[in-house]
Amino acid sequence: MATPMTDSTMLTRRGVLSAAAGALLLSGCGPTTAQDDAEPDGSASPGGPELLIGVSLELTGRGAALGVLQERALRISLEDINVERVQVGNLRRSVRLLVRDNRGDARLAARQTTDLIRDDHVHALLGTTLPETAMAVAGVAQRLRTPFVSLAHGDGIVLPLAQRTFSYKLTPDAADVARRLAQLARSEGLERVALLAADGLHGDSGVRAVTAALRTVGLELDRAVRLPRGGADFADAAEKTVADEPDGVILWSAAPDTGSAARALRRAGWRGPLFLDAAAVAEETLEGSNATAVEGAYAVHPACLGGSTLTNTTTAALARRDFVFRYIQQHGGFSGFAPYASDALRLIADAARLSTSIDRGRIRAFLQTLVTDGLVGPYAFTPIRHSGFERDSLGVYTVSGGSWVRIS
Question: In DSSP terms, which residues pair with 276 in a beta bridge?
Fold first, then answer.
């Protein structure tokens, strides 16, 4: 799904990155030989003519609200890819996914990932929707030198770069999301904004990013309150957040905590503007009793949330439209789900195809130079930036009538 450079993109940032990527790869990789399909120890590659990808997802337990949706997306895209398979060197390889349910447990995710690499000999890894499980997988991936494409929110997954040379992240950076939220709050005429942030690594990123972003646009951070760990009662945190009657509240948390926290804020008497970060966007956030609590809330999210218009006929838009149609057919609805897992699968397949090899090191080398349009949005990876989502494609949405509606 990699997009070739055209005359109209020659002078864009992504066009320059494409040209630089080609030069880097030509200087850094030697010619492909039959040895490229061997393991680092020189033995024949296990798996035969397959490209094996290990998948770690939260299919049960904490994180399942997003993990199950990612598995659905994977199945749709895997079927598409395997129609013609992936041309890797002189072989067309089927893609096989080895899916593991990490149950939201970082230690289990690490053990499963170790087994996927050592016992199943996967060529690459993708997955996890929680930053804690993503960090666990990233640590194993680095130690065992296997490329990992993360679906979780949290900047530490790919930082510091010297310790994350095999990890890549598809979700927007916290600073980019916080910047758009702060600009939106300022445009609404707000002066004091309170922050209610999740526990854990995702919330940590949010506190840092929102604090800096509000300062940049001249707004006051009224207070920063953290949600209790482990899905406990959010009532106390909500009451503390609105105690000083701020002009607006930023809720920085992922589903399913977003809906619960929004309900707690409403029960605490909050009726003012509510702003959500990108991790809040999932079907569960708009379901049941959550719908009333988040009605009118704003969210910053990749532009795919608004769907494709009938007049948009780019390759990426057509692929996105087809994906949404098939998702609705199979699962009965599509309410703001961004298919990061589908993009991760295609990025790994593209890297293997471009590298003409299933060698883990070569797949990693080509991942870090991919410039492509995905279903979620455009990505531009570089050797010094493993968080590839392009900030310019973030959109601002509001919840209206139980749906996400783009307003800018």
Answer: 251, 299
The helix (H) or strand (E) run that includes residue 185 is helix 174-187
Q: Distance (Å, rounded) from C-alpha 115 to C-alpha 323?
A: 32
Contact between residue 371 and residue 3 where contact means Cβ atoms under 8 Å apart: yes
CB 172 within 8 A of CB 389: yes
Interval 295-340: pLDDT, tens: 999 999 997 776 544 446 678 788 888 888 898 888 887 755 668 9
Provide the β-strand partners of residue 220: 192
* CA within 13 Å, CB half, 318: 4
Residue type (1 letter), 323: F
CB 327 within 8 A of CB 304: no
Q: What is the CATH number of the domain that holds 43?
A: 3.40.50.2300
Question: Diameter of the chain by CA atoms?
Answer: 68
Give yes or no: residues 229 and 369 share one domain.
Answer: no
* 357: phi then psi, degrees, rounded to nearest 5: -160, 155
Host domain of residue 249: 174-306+396-406
Residue type present at position 87: Q
Q: What is the pLDDT of residue 46?
A: 46
